[in-house]
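Preliminary data (for renewal application), 5-O-phosphono-beta-D-ribofuranose complex.
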Amino acid sequence: MSIAKVGVIMGSSSDWDVMQNAVRMLKDFGVPYEAQVISAHRMPHDMAEYGAQAYDKGIRAIIAGAGGAAHLPGMMAALTEVPVFGVPVPSRYLRGEDSLLSIVQMPKGVPVATFAIGEAGAANAALHAIATLAMHDEDLRQQLMAFRQKQTEAARAMHLPEVE
Ligand code: RP5
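Predicted structure:
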C-alpha cells in the first residue's frame, strides 16, 4: 500500500457514518489515505503527536470531522502546516449547528476550510483535497474532470414529473 497522502481523522467512531463518505471518495479516486479516531478531548496527546508528524510522514491534506464541541479540526490546524478541511458532524441535540460554528469560527491566522454539515460536507472535503492534490498530478486532474463531467451529464438527464 502506498504512503498515505490524506489523513482522515474524527473525534469518535460515532462519526464514521458521516466520515466514511470522505473515505469512499478518496478510495474511488485511488488517493492513498489513512483513517483513524483521534479525539481532541479524550486523546489530546495523540492529537498533538499526529499534528507534529503529519507532514514528515507524507500527509498533504487532513480531513477532520467532529461533532458538538468540535475542537479537533481547529486544534489540528494549530498543530500542523498541513491544510485542514473541517467536517461538522451532525450532533444529537443541535443537529450539527454547534459543530459547524465550533469549526468555522477560527481566530485569524489559523484557518480551517470548513464544509457543510454531514455527508455532503465529508464528500466535498475529500473532493477539495483531491482537487488540491490534482494541481500537481495530471492523472488525478483528468479523473476529477471526468467525475465532474459525469455529474453534469447526470444532472442534464434529470426529468421532472408531469403535473396532473
Ligand atoms: C465528538 O463528540 C465526536 O466527534 C462526536 O461527534 C461526539 C460524540 O462522541 P461519542 O460520545 O459518540 O463518542 O468529540
